[in-house]
User: Which sequence fits this backbone?
């Protein structure tokens, strides 16, 4: 039976479909969703930021995130990120990915990127019962821990669809939920220039950019995205660095 969407699910689904523009309609103001700025503000007096972490309270930060890897093209993306000295957050998928490209997953970790969970088989979590949701998350947690020695603390629900019920499972598993503020919809086009333009047009301070490296037009767009955003004064950070000095809270939903 299809599970009832909680109030987060309704907002997250709409926001995911419409992208950053719908923020003006109020999706970013839900009490269930925490913005990076709000997270930093709430933690500023109680938590110390690592000296190596850029201070996004004073710098104009953006987080590049990539869903659905690792895959065959991922090493090419890692080469670009290494050359540009840009950290990224990879929301990795299990079936056909973490179990197929362990060396690439290990390289992500070794080169300082953040690795997060994007489920085992990309099922829509709001369609599942609590045990089924956990079954989608746990194998990826296990793979990442076994391969890299680190356990993810962040996850991204497929299609951005979450609910109060899903959030309760994520709290039990120690996973914070991360949505996004801009997507190039690169799953629907291989036009590199269009992908680049969509990202650049939609990116604002504290932005979380959603891309997928396995699609043909995406990786060629990345150097231009990095170069232009850097020229505009942006500092590239991982999602956890974007939230610092706050520590992502299990079950919470973060979205610019």
Assistant:
């Amino acid at each position: 039976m299809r599970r009832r969407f909680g109030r987060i699910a309704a907002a997250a689904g709409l926001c995911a479909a419409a992208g950053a523009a719908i923020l003006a309609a109020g999706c970013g103001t839900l009490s269930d969703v925490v913005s990076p700025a709000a997270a930093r503000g709430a933690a500023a007096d109680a938590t110390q930021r690592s000296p190596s972490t850029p201070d996004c309270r004073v710098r104009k930060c953006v987080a590049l995130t990539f869903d659905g890897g690792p895959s065959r093209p991922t090493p090419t993306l890692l080469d670009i990120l290494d050359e540009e000295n840009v950290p990224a957050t990879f929301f990795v998928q299990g079936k056909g990915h973490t179990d197929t490209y362990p060396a690439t997953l290990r390289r992500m970790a070794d080169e300082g990127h953040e690795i997060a969970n994007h489920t085992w088989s990309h099922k829509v979590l709001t369609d599942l019962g609590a045990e089924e949701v956990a079954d989608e998350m746990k194998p990826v947690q296990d793979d990442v821990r076994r391969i890299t020695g680190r356990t993810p603390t962040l996850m991204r629900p497929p299609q951005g669809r979450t609910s109060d019920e899903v959030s309760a499972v994520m709290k039990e598993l120690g996973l914070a939920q991360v949505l996004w503020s801009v997507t190039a919809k690169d799953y629907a086009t291989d036009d590199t220039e269009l992908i680049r333009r969509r990202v650049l047009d939609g990116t604002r301070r504290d932005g979380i950019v959603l891309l997928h490296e396995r699609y043909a037009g995406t990786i060629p767009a990345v150097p231009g995205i990095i170069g232009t955003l850097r020229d505009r004064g942006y500092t590239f950070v991982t999602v956890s660095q974007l939230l610092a000095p706050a520590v992502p809270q299990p079950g919470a939903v973060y979205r610019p």
User: Anything to note?
Assistant: The chain is about 40% helix and 15% strand. The longest strand covers residues 61-67. Confidence is low (pLDDT under 50) at residues 1-31.
